[in-house]
Amino acid sequence: FFSVHLNMYGASSWRDEGKGKGGAKGKGGKGSFGGKGKGGGKGKGDGKGKGMSNGYDWGEEKPDRPMNEDPDYQRAEPTEQELYNNTSSKFMFDNIEVDNHLSGTDTHKYNIDPQTFESLELDSILMSNIKKCGYTDLTPAQRIALPVLRDERDLVLVAQTGSGKTAGFLIPMIQDFLSKGDFDGYKTLGCVLAPTRELCCQIYDDARKFCMNSGIQVCVSYGGTKPQFQADKIRRGCDLIVSTPGRLKDFLQRGTVDLSCCRFAVLDEADEMLQRGFKEDMYEIFDYMLDKASRTTALFSATFPEELQGITREFMNERDTDERYGYIFGRVAPVLVVPHGIQQIIEDVGSKDHWTMMETLRGYIDSAPAALFLVFVKTKREALSIENELWGGSYGVEALHGDKSQQARETALANFKTRKTTILVATDVASRGLDIPNCDYVVNVGVPQGIDTYIHRIGRTGRLGQKGTAITLFDGSNMHVLPDLLKVLEKNQQEIPDWLHGAAERGARYSGGKGSGKGKGKGKGSDGKGKGKGKGKGKGSDGKGKGKGSSFEGGK
């Protein structure tokens, strides 16, 4: 796993000779509602073997890094004019349901009522940059984040997609640096971790906007580019770093980055980092920082699954102590609520009928030829297939997925944002946090694997309270998600097709019953020797018994 992880994020040790270690233990997944069940079945393990690992093990998924990537590629940074021109500033407050809630010690002292940036008495340079962005009033998420973080309190903030969370953590961090005036570039004072390269670049650009002409040096690090370019810039001075966990961990181990004075840490889309397997990396990264009693830590996301709650206990001040108060939990809107400006449409295209699905997709695209369509698919192969079919029909389309080089990924996203292409077919690399101005339609080809993913995907439209349309083409897959999807539609007062009620009832049964699981066993390692199949026990994929509901609901 270690070699795979580094490769995904561009560490220089692409080929590691030595022991190739597969994942020997195989377990079936829990039911969609956390239901426990009987395992069963035989499973191949991935064993241990010696040999050339080629940077990954045959028992694991190939790393998300294309072999034809240009090792000398370096992202062209937007100019000052481009940075401010690309800012989304018009927030439609009427289309966002606001139910601001704070829990923790002394929360009564924080003003979370509507207010303007002018009223916050921010540093003049920072305030000037905020005005250049066109920001005047705080969004509901910012009304919570700014006063709490300026008071150096730890914060967990759960807010809808497109609600201004990025500015919510960057502005108080930068204000802290400017007010104390102790930034010099030699030791990094602030760190923002994000799960994807694309989100890293977006946060980095936002940080540059707010830090313009302040003397604060902002750096970014992520995989897919030559580490030397990023390392050289960091060594010239880095007060604030925005990074993916893998590349930052590599730089810390090499001594490229010094976080010993880091007093402001942010985990953006933290639930996605957990799902991508970065938990241990986050532990190691935080070990390089000041201890949690001496730093301000913030965790931002649109969802807050149960496994994420354990992270707060590890990285944040959970309880009041003599040194400082425990963290504050903030919520902008009730759970399962998405921005009101997003119209959600669910259409049945038949059980995995590709022809019907493509005809339906083309119908929506043809009905709005000038609109921007972000089409989400489950696999890279599916992204390539749909891209080719639409391209053959003379549509302006590009794909965004992990098999593309970093340069190609950034170009595809930039072309879509600037309307050089009007259709972007993407895997979930584009589902988290990306701010795509005026994205009119999001289309899910098939129901996503979880309701959290659904909410994040459709949040690429209807940003900042604008209007948008989210279409899900149901093909019979991921039936277990339908009960939660039905709840989202009902809670947001969306039109529900008659067939969905019955399908959701059938989907609920998918969370019960016996399931088959992979067993323990030894298999071949990476180019090495190993033993054969073995029987084992695992938790069934649709286990029988009691379980927990979705990440938003209580037990079911």
UniProtKB/TrEMBL annotation:
A motif (Q motif) lies at residues 115-143. Residues 9-74, 506-556 are annotated as: Disordered. PROSITE patterns: DEAD_ATP_HELICASE (PS00039), HELICASE_ATP_BIND_1 (PS51192), HELICASE_CTER (PS51194), Q_MOTIF (PS51195). It comes from the Eukaryota. Residues 115-143 form the DEAD-box RNA helicase Q domain. Gene3D superfamilies: P-loop containing nucleotide triphosphate hydrolases. Residues 146-322 form the Helicase ATP-binding domain. GO terms for molecular function: ATP binding; hydrolase activity; nucleic acid binding; RNA helicase activity; translation initiation factor activity. Its EC number is 3.6.4.13. SMART domains: DEXDc (SM00487), HELICc (SM00490). InterPro entries: DEAD/DEAH_box_helicase_dom, Helicase_ATP-bd, Helicase_C-like, P-loop_NTPase, RNA-helicase_DEAD-box_CS, RNA_helicase_DEAD_Q_motif. Residues 59-74 have a biased composition (Basic and acidic residues). Residues 29-42 have a biased composition (Gly residues). Keywords: ATP-binding, Helicase, Hydrolase, Initiation factor, Nucleotide-binding, Protein biosynthesis. Residues 341-504 form the Helicase C-terminal domain. ATP-dependent RNA helicase which is a subunit of the eIF4F complex involved in cap recognition and is required for mRNA binding to ribosome. In the current model of translation initiation, eIF4A unwinds RNA secondary structures in the 5'-UTR of mRNAs which is necessary to allow efficient binding of the small ribosomal subunit, and subsequent scanning for the initiator codon. eIF4F is a multi-subunit complex, the composition of which varies with external and internal environmental conditions. It is composed of at least EIF4A, EIF4E and EIF4G. Belongs to the DEAD box helicase family. eIF4A subfamily. This is Probable eukaryotic initiation factor 4A. The lineage of its organism: Eukaryota, Discoba, Euglenozoa, Euglenida, Spirocuta.
